[in-house]
Write a sequence for this structure.
């Protein structure tokens, strides 16, 4: 076991994008932030020092944090954020984890600029289940905002309306030539050698958009999703929702020239407008002489994107992501279910409080909200849920949360329909900090039913602390009698796009104690309350028991 030590200073840095210079919050002055490199089984130690005015916490997205929930990072769930001038050292082991994961700020909308890749190589002597690539490149899909993202969240929450569009989509921080003043601000993979195969590590770090990614004239072969090998799947374009990672192989088998790679938004609800300008990056074969760049003489191939609302493409793509045999052979898909949960997920609308009624920008004059099982999640702000749970003797008497998060939707509301044109009379939710308690070791199934109370949109649901098998997905209302579940080779993921007007079923074994956040990875939906938390209780014996908190755990 090697220990990888990193120093992350959260600090301001100036960038010039879209014709403007501005200061953004970064790690070590980099945007995107530094890549964490490690090998399966390594210990990772990251000392984070907060040198900005915002409170900060970092989450290691996809790292299971086995017995190290204290270092998971979501603010007010597992820790209080690191205050200005303070430090906190994250320490965890990459137990049986390899592939592409990532890290990001997990407080307000700071992850807009505070994010980076984690590249975890397999143990020495363990080959990939695909040809070894000639070279590899991390490509982070993001959004760039000329305004401060944290203040955009605050003003969106005040208005009660939908989120504004970002000012640009970016690949590794670069908008590329479709945007003003950005022809030079283009990420490029240069000197691709004809005939060689390359590994692209794609990460969707965008706040509020799902994306297509494509490379002109080249096929993409998906070989890994969320850090787990998949059956190779070859396609013209990939779909990646916020939180997800995909490793794809590309063989440079086209005539040497310039090819553009790009990302565009996928609009799961065609009525919600998305930014339609693609972020572009360059894929250049060697043997193209640099002097040809200025003359415009190089053949430049542009990508042909799927339509922004091509839902058929998206569902076909997700159906084709299957586990590689070593994945489902190694960690068995749970067959007998101990806890069967049914979660409705979606947006709803609250009545505007009368003082602000004229300002409320929600669809029917109210304010947007979101909920799971009709509960709009509220984060505590004086202590984290994990601290409260750990310190409490009788957890029900701790005032900052209650353990009555329901296994099914709260009955008084009729929120279970996926149909977008059939809203209930009462679109309001209950507000609270409720958690659902799971006994250690239980096999858990969650049916995630997307609702259509006000419109319908995909929800990329992310569970902390676990990867889960996606055993089923479909349109309309989930029906246990007709739904077909794949218990043979379902993909093991940490984030799943639950389709608009449809459902997904996930399964996992609750064998990692702690407090684990489950939420929509569209940042605005988390802000609106599309979140909840599980307490997975300590097991019997010291091996399954969460150790006490680290001494430098921040205070609120
Ligand atoms: Cu990638 Cu809770 O987040």
């Amino acid at each position: 076991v090697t220990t990888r030590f990193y120093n992350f200073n959260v600090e301001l840095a100036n960038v010039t994008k879209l014709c403007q210079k501005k200061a953004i919050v970064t790690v070590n002055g980099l945007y995107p932030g530094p890549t964490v490199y490690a090998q399966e089984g390594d210990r990772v130690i990251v000392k984070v020092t907060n040198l900005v005015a915002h409170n900060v916490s970092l989450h290691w997205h996809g790292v299971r944090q086995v017995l190290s929930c204290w270092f998971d990072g979501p603010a007010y769930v597992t820790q209080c954020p690191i205050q200005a001038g303070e430090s906190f050292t994250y320490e965890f082991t990459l137990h049986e984890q390899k592939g592409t994961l990532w890290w990001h700020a997990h407080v307000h909308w700071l992850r807009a600029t505070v994010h980076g890749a984690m590249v975890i190589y397999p143990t020495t002597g363990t080959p990939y289940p695909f040809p070894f690539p000639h070279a590899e490149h991390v490509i982070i899909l993001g959004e760039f905002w000329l305004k401060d993202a944290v203040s955009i969240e605050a003003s969106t929450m005040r208005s009660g309306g939908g989120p504004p569009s970002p000012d640009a989509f970016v690949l590794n921080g670069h908008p590329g030539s479709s945007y003003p003043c950005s022809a030079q601000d283009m990420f490029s993979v240069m000197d691709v050698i004809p005939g060689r195969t390359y590994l692209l590590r794609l990460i969707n770090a965008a706040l509020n958009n799902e994306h297509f990614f494509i490379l002109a004239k080249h096929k993409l072969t998906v070989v890994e999703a969320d850090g787990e090998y998949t059956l190779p799947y070859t396609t013209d374009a990939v779909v990646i929702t916020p939180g997800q990672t995909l490793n794809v192989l590309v063989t440079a088998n086209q005539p040497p020239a310039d090819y553009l790679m790009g990302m565009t938004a996928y609009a799961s609800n065609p009525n919600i407008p998305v930014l339609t300008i693609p972020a572009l990056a360059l894929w250049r074969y060697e043997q193209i002489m640099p002097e040809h760049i200025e003359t415009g003489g190089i053949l430049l191939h542009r990508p042909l994107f799927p339509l922004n609302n091509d839902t058929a493409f998206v569902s076909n793509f997700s159906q084709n992501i299957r586990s590689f045999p070593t994945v489902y052979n190694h960690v068995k898909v749970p067959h007998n279910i101990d806890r069967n949960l049914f979660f409705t997920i979606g947006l709803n609308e609250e009545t505007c409080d009368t003082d602000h009624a004229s300002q409320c920008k929600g669809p029917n004059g109210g304010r947007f909200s979101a909920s799971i099982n009709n509960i709009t999640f509220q984060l505590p702000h004086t202590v984290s849920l994990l601290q409260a749970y750990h310190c409490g003797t009788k957890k029900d008497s701790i005032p900052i949360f209650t353990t009555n998060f329901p296994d099914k939707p709260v009955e008084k509301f009729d929120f279970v329909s996926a149909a977008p044109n059939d809203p209930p009379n009462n679109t309001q939710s209950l507000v609270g900090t409720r958690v659902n308690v799971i006994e250690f070791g239980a096999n858990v199934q969650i049916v995630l039913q997307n609702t259509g109370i006000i419109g319908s949109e995909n929800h990329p649901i992310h569970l902390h602390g676990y990867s889960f098998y996606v055993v089923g997905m479909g349109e309309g209302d989930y029906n246990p009698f007709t739904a077909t579940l794949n218990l043979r080779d379902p993909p093991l993921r940490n984030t799943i796009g639950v389709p608009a007007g449809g459902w997904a079923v996930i399964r996992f074994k609750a064998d990692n104690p702690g407090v684990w956040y489950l939420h929509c990875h569209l940042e605005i939906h988390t802000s609106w309350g599309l979140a909840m938390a599980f307490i997975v209780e300590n097991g019997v014996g010291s091996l399954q028991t969460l150790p006490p908190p680290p001494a430098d755990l921040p205070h609120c």
In short: The chain has a mean pLDDT of 92.
